Amino acid sequence: MTDRQHAIAALNDQLCSALPTGSVMLTPGIRALPVQTQLQVLARVRAFNDFSADNDPYGEHDFGSIDHADAGRIFWKIDYYDATLTAGSPDSADPIVTRRLLTVMLAEEY
Questions:
Q1: Contact at 8 Å (CB) between 76 and 101?
Q2: pLDDT computed for residue 14 by the predictor
Q3: Which Pfam families does the record associate with it (predicted)?
Q4: Residue 55 and residue 87: Cα distance in Å, rounded?
Q5: In this predicted model, what pLDDT tens digit does every residue of 38-51 receive, in sequence order?
């Protein structure tokens, strides 16, 4: 892994484990779940650390998949935007110019 990949992975891990460090979007399918289920899903996303070469080929920790008994397969992903959230980030390894958005969705919403 390069230094850049390590930097991006660390920032993405920080977002997932301490959700207030970025923006979080729950899709309509997730929001339709009971609140307790939503909280359980978010807790699982925060705790996710099952990265491998198969599910994280670039080593950036920007996508994950979990199975939840009440909700089925859940995907989460992190996208990188500029400071105004109107375009892609010019450098996803630089937290000063990057706003991260964590999206949590049902697999069928992907």
A1: no
A2: 87
A3: DUF3768 (PF12599)
A4: 26
A5: 999 999 999 999 99
8 Å CB contact between 98 and 79: no
Between helix 3-17 and helix 35-47 the angle, nearest 10°, is: 150
Q: Which residues contact 66 (CB under 8 A, 6 or more apart)?
A: 41, 44, 45, 48, 73, 74, 76
Q: Is the pTM of this model over 0.85?
A: yes
Which amino acid, residue 106? L
pLDDT at 97: 95
What stretches of the chain show up as alpha helix (H) in DSSP?
3-17, 28-31, 35-47
The Cα–Cα gap between 26 and 4 comes to: 28
Q: Is 72 left (phi over 0), alpha (psi -120 to 50) or beta?
A: left
